[in-house]
Amino acid sequence: MNISLSITKNIHDWLLSIMPESAANIVEMVLIGLLYLAIFAILGLFLVLLERRIAAWFQLRIGPNRVGFHGLLQTMADALKLLSKELTGTTKADKFLYNLAPYFVIVSSLMALAVIPFTKEFHAFDINIGIFFLIAISSVGVIGILLGGWASNNKFALIGAMRSGVQTISYELSVALSLLTMIIITGSLQLSEIIEVQKSGWLIVQGHIPAIIAFMVFMISGTAESNRAPFDMVEAESELGAGFHTEYSGMKFAYFFLAEFINMFIIAAIAATVFFGGWLSPFGITESIPWLGVFWFLGKTFILVFLMMWFRWTFPRLRVDQLLTLEWKYLLPINLVNIIIMALIVWLNLTIQF
Amino acid sequence: MQETTIDKSFKTEPYQINMGPQHPATHGVLRLVLTIDGEIIKKVEPDLGYIHRSIEKMCERDSYQQIVHLTDRMDYLSSHINNEAVCLTVENALELEIPERVKYVRTIIGELTRIASHCLWWGVMGMDVGALTTYFYGFRDREMINDIFEETCGARLTMNYNVPGGLMFDIHPNFVKRTKDFIAHFKTKLPEYDRLLTENVIFQKRTKGVGILSKEDAISFGATGPVGRASGFSCDVRKHHPYSALDKVTFNEALKTEGDTFARYQVRIQEMWESLSIVEQLIDNIPEGDFRVATKAVIKLPKGEFYQKVETARGELGVYIISTGTKNPYRLKFRSPGFSNLSLLNHISVGGKIGDLVATMATLDLVIPDIDR
Amino acid sequence: MSYFSDIYKGVKTLLTGMSVTGKYFLNSRKGAITQQYPDNRDTLKMFDRFRGEVIMPHDENNEHRCTGCQKCEIACPNGTIEIIWDRGIDETTGKKKKKIDQFVYHLGMCTMCGLCIDVCPTDAIEWGQNFENSVYDRAQLTRVLNKPESKLQPGVED
């Protein structure tokens, strides 16, 4: 637990003064959990709104502009609507798994959110295997999708779930390998360590050509990992209706929906942390003001989120076999070669450092 | 020796799913019963009739002027051409001499209808393969044509601008200017269509070599329009049996030989260019004259059978009228292009993936009310 | 080597596509193609030939031009128009004459084909521009087009 932002330090001291240490720790964990849930909800709703506005601008539309100032409360209203909706389900569904599935999806993305460093002090869970933990936890979400698709006893949902399984298992390789390429430079899996290394130049600059290739591969496979267009095989609106969440309604559907957007944020956040220096400001221009790190981190992340939205609103969807072709015949070999090149570059000290 | 017993409790069944009647890719109320093996399609059975309104039977009740407005409701994306087909049949049967002005205007609006229909198709095609933005770009350009129609005909979709003997009223004074504006606008937008979707590597991978229809099959299934022409079957009614002012223009019939989904796509894009050139050739030369010749208030066709075919945006539309000399047709039959084009869906999509089926269906450009009537 | 040229060409086409949408994104401030419909009611003007509904114009003396010839009723394919007529005595000539009592228009059945207006010999009915025709009760779609106590304009029948 790395909670030493000055405000958290005060809370920590105050809690210690009124209760024993173990109880104080538990209370702190609950508080942090609630804080991250709040971040999760606000971020999710904001990203949905952002996606809708950006989509509208791409498509010569205006987008949501009725609820609140410039439509800022639109997604809040949608969430309230979803909350008040009836939770329907199929009669022959496996009730337990059917109800469990959304939590798998949402818990996995929430856990991934915990290790992301928003800024130097704002980092809930800085474990020494940070990247490994992220890769591991992001693949738990697919279990939720598989369960949801299978348990809802709907043929469209089942096809969607099976596609998801195929897709996530394949693309995890590329995500992991492209991150591994960068870890060759940093020599550490810990996210705070990775950012520390980038104080002498962002990794995409340090690693130049192989880093750029790794970044491109990571963005492609990350988009696929978060099941977004052009890799939205799982939902594939024109093919499967709504895919794996066909039979979900109300808040359970909202869980899937929010998790998808949080996953997109996580992918962008990892890319921003590993390739673009996370909360570090460019050339250290605002190093003296630590809290601006959040601004830099979110700025970089949202630029990458925008890139993913741009992909989504431009490209047609791949077919399921082409999806696998892209992974196994293009991304994976490129990645493997890329790792070797990167290793050579690090070995020969050809990295660019300021 | 004990006989080995086969465990009969384990048996496999074909996996059938219902695509439709409410499904985003069937564009209406078409129901497809798919038999699939994983992702691979084993059989496609279209199930029709969800929007059957017995238009042919209603026509037997109506007078010849009234029939025209029912044809709006068949293939609503080429309603003007449908109207023209009925009017041409009646006019030919009555041996009416139609003014040149009417012929020109009919052709111009017919070609604009074709562009509008293809614009919508292009948008929806993009959406079916997953590129959602194309929809709005297609509709933006279609909207300009719809405005032209609304100003001249009073309606955007079900126009009913034709009457037997000519047009219901003369073209609007702004018609020529607006059409020229549209041509200038659309000439800059069509290359954009190519850059956004046609050249896209994902789109090409999705469509090339998918849903291949050979020329022989195209002829034997009765495929017409862009579907037939993409397979190398030269079937453009405008070229082979010109009607209205189409004998006064020069244009190329868009022909491809590949017969796959991408070829059908390219044929339609090509057709938009050709239609633009047809409109361009005619728009400056609309002759002065009457917009209508007087017909009797009660039109009675001579006894006999009459047939007229036109080229709608989807293919060959035939109107077959049996008259017994009364004010109503004895029997009226529409040969609609969508019905024949749907019949080959099973033939070309078996063996493909679900995604292929959706892409193939998008290029067949089905309008369900046209199939069910 | 075609492996790498495929990748290069593929990425190039993808970037071309992105440039198209990106251009529209940057120009999105110039305005959308969609309309803010209920808000723009004041400025929204339909084309003068727009077919919204059939109306029967009356002049300032509450006089219409319908002689009750029923041609529109015959021309209508859907039975949208019903003319309830009566024989009354004309004040000027003193002869018995056909005049309309009620011109009933069932908007719910109308397909806006325009045959009635096309066929009308006296231009008594024409297209109205109103297109906001939704009502809560279907009965409200049945309208009587001639105003109460309205008369035939003199000189129409000549």
Poorly predicted runs of chain A: none
User: What is the CA-atom radius of gyration of chain C, in angstroms?
Assistant: 27 Å
Proportion in helices of chain A = 55-70%
Provide the CATH top-level class of the largest domain in chain C. Answer: Alpha Beta
The domain count of chain A comes to 2
The rough form of chain A would be described as globular
List the defining traits of the structure above:
heterotrimer, A: 354 residues, mainly alpha, 14 helices, B: 373 residues, alpha+beta, Cytochrome-c3 Hydrogenase, chain B, 3-stranded antiparallel beta sheet, 15 helices, 8 strands, 48% helix
Structural features, described:
The complex is a heterotrimer of chains A (354), B (373) and C (158). Chain A has 354 residues and is mostly helical. Chain A has two domains: 1-84, no CATH class; 87-347, no CATH class. Chain A contains 14 helices and no strands. Chain A has helices at residues 6-18, 21-58, 74-83, 95-114, 130-138, 141-151, 155-186, 191-197, 203-206, 208-225, 237-240, 250-275, 292-312, 320-347. Chain B has 373 residues and is an alpha+beta fold. Chain B has 15 helices and eight strands. In chain B, the strands form three sheets. A three-stranded antiparallel beta sheet of chain B has the order 1-2-3. Chain B has a three-stranded antiparallel beta sheet with strand order 6-7-8. In chain B, strand 7 and strand 8 (331-335) form a beta hairpin. In chain B, helix 2 packs antiparallel against helix 3 (79-94) and helix 4 packs antiparallel against helix 5. Chain B starts with 14 loop residues before the first strand and ends with a helix. Chain C folds into two domains: 2-34; 53-152, Alpha-Beta Plaits, CATH 3.30.70.3270. Helices cover 22% and strands 21% of the residues of chain C. Chain C has helices at 2-26, 71-75, 115-119; strands spanning 53-55, 63-64, 81-89, 96-106, 126-128, 142-144, 151-152. In chain C, strand 3 (81-89) and strand 4 (96-106) form a beta hairpin. The longest helix of chain C is centred in the N-terminal third of the chain and has 25 residues, at 2-26. The model of chain C has no long low-confidence stretch (mean pLDDT 83). Chains A and C meet through helix 2 of A and helix 1 of C.
